[in-house]
Amino acid sequence: MTSLLEIRKLSRHFDLGSGVVKALDNVSLSLHAGEVLGVVGESGSGKSTLARTVMALDHPTSGTVVLDQRDIFSLGPRALRKARRDFQMVFQDPYGSLNPRHRIGRIIAEPLHLMPDAPKGAERRALVGTLLEDVGLDAADQDRFPHEFSGGQRQRIAIARALITKPRLLVADEATSALDLTVQKQILDLILDLRDRHGISVLFITHNIGVVQEICDRVAVMQHGKLVEVGPTQEVLDAPQQAYTRRLLAAEPRLDVIGRKSRSRP
Amino acid sequence: MRRLPKTLVLGGIITVIMIGAALLSRFWTPADPTGMNIMARLKAPGEVGLLGTDQIGRDVLSIIMSGAWTSLGIASTATLVGGGIGTVFGVMAAAKGGWVERLVMTFNGVLFAFPPILSAILLGALLGPGAVTSMVAIGVFMIPVFARVTRAAAIQIWARDYVKAARMAGKQDTLITLEHVLPNISAQLIVQLAIQTGLGILSEAGLSFLGMGVSPPTPSWGRMLSESQTYLSSAPHLVLAPGLAIAITVLGLNLLGDGLRDLTDPRRRQTT
Ligand SMILES: Nc1ncnc2c1ncn2[C@@H]1O[C@H](COP(=O)(O)OP(=O)(O)OP(=O)(O)O)[C@@H](O)[C@H]1O
Ligand SMILES: [Mg+2]
After folding, report:
1. What residue in A sits closest to B175 (Cα-Cα)?
2. Buried b / exposed e across A79-112, counting CB within 10 Å, b at 16+?
3. Cα of A173 to ligand 2 centre, how many Å?
4. What is the residue-averaged pLDDT of chain B?
5. I need a surface site. Which of A102, A137, B70, B71 has the fewest CB within 10 A?
6. CB B162 to CB A114 under 8 A?
7. pLDDT, tens digit, 9 for 90 and up, residues A184-232
8. Is the minimum distance from the CB of A262 to ligand 1 under 6 angstroms?
9. What is the pTM of this model?
């Protein structure tokens, strides 16, 4: 099976003057078409940096990301923009990822900018409405503004936005962690359904081992910017090879609490 | 309806009155602001006209009203044009970074070294004193002021995830600046516009005081202040009237700016 995404020896260092933070340190990973790959690791282990770099929002210190046989960092700006309809992302912080001055409909439809033949007017409204219903919101919500929604609802809006171009790769950075169990289940089912129907691949970053168990085919474990373990979900969860993974699994409820805390905003 | 900040209400009222007086002076003043009358010179307020007359018998209220037009006209035009140019520089620096940002900021530093008085002296040598000289001198100084404020505010917006989402949507810097950056810094820019117009009025008065502003007979607060210095003890109203006009207008614009800042403060939004 050919892989949709190849991450090769990816490093991202931040020079802080007082020292160098290796947010990513020589990470290699691959993701097959139609696969859901979980990424777990303690706070600060480099998960979000990995997501941003794979989405070409940030340049790596070294290494490459090959998406669908193309090295995304060697693409020219125009070619990169064209390629973007195939990979979309859901950001970790639902309070920062929606422009407070735009209506929900405009926010969700933004990636259609990538598609010259995208529907307009009433057709576009209908498309956005369907997506809103897919993520458990109301089609009429497209006329409202972000501040009228809770963190979990905003996260669902961000998910709808990421899905509108029918990407082949979805990177979800803690996309469901702010949601309650019922909604979380609904979103996970939606993602699995997209996988089954359209063969979408998902890089699923989470603190929640339960979710990993539920939807991930494989899981990668990160610590201090390094990949410490990767393998089929059940194998890693049942027989972790690394002490760090064992500690992470044992501490799962605590990690979940940390995840929630870091997201609660005034 | 949430309550408006007191500063906003007070500043708004003062500003509206001043702009109203300036506009009204184009159609009507109690007397001709340039018409001298030696028989009725140096009359006290109330004696002749509401604010008295000056050393050659002109009606002070009429001069103050027409002076408002001169002051506000020059200051707001300079602030709008200079501020507009500065804003473009600021968003460009924030969007492009790298050598574009360094070039813009260096250029700003150079402009910042030309306070309005210096520019007016240099320009005055070329064009002679007048409204255009004042406007350009003040406007040039507004460019770096706005470029700095805009750049700092825009850099913060560029770090937001919704801008990253726009990049994921394939949008280029110009479109992101128009759709995401400017709408989210517009409140800060409007606050600056109010405060800087106030400073522009001070600069205009300063230039006129030094004889580098609008030429006579166009009424001007700054020139009136300088011409009436010698009557400070005999006819204090001649100094007080333009002095208070300048102070109140600048105060009004500053209160307006502060009030707008309070109004758009997100912390305030959450608690109300
Ligand atoms: N722009 C940046 N400048 C400096 N350091 C950074 C920057 N971005 C990330 N880092 C550092 O890189 C490391 C990894 O951060 P990252 O956000 O990727 O972690 P994470 O695994 O997503 O954590 P969390 O679970 O809390 O979201 C951290 O030590 C962080 O401080
Ligand atoms: Mg993170």
Report:
1. A113
2. ebbebbbbbbbbbbbbbbbbbeebebbebbbbbb
3. 7
4. 87
5. A102
6. no
7. 888 888 888 888 887 889 999 988 888 888 889 999 999 999 999 999 9
8. yes
9. 0.85
* pLDDT for residue B132: 87
Q: Do A111 and B167 touch (CB under 8 A)?
A: no
Kindly report, residue by residue over B48-72, the tens digit of the pLDDT.
777 778 877 788 888 899 999 999 9
Residue ID of nearest Cα to ligand 1 atom 22: A48
User: In this structure, are strands A20-32 and A70-71 parallel, antiparallel, or unpaired?
Assistant: unpaired
Which residues numbered 151-170 in A keep a CB inside 8 Å of some CB on B?
Answer: 158, 161
Give the pLDDT band (50/70/90) at residue B151: very high
For ligand 1, atom 16, which residue shows the shortest CA distance?
A46
Over range B38-49, report the average pLDDT: 74
**ipTM score of complex:** 0.86
Q: Which of A85, A110, A112 sits opposite B165 (nearest CB)?
A: A110
For chain A, give me the number of helices (H) and strands (E)?
Answer: 10, 10
- What local confidence, expressed as pLDDT, does residue B268 receive? 57
Name the CATH superfamily for A14-68+168-266.
Answer: P-loop containing nucleotide triphosphate hydrolases (3.40.50.300)
Q: Which atom of ligand 1 is nearest to the CA of A207?
A: 25
Q: At what angle do helices A151-163 and A121-134 cross, to 10 degrees?
A: 130
CB atoms within 10 A of CB B262: 16
Residue spans per domain, chain A: 14-68+168-266
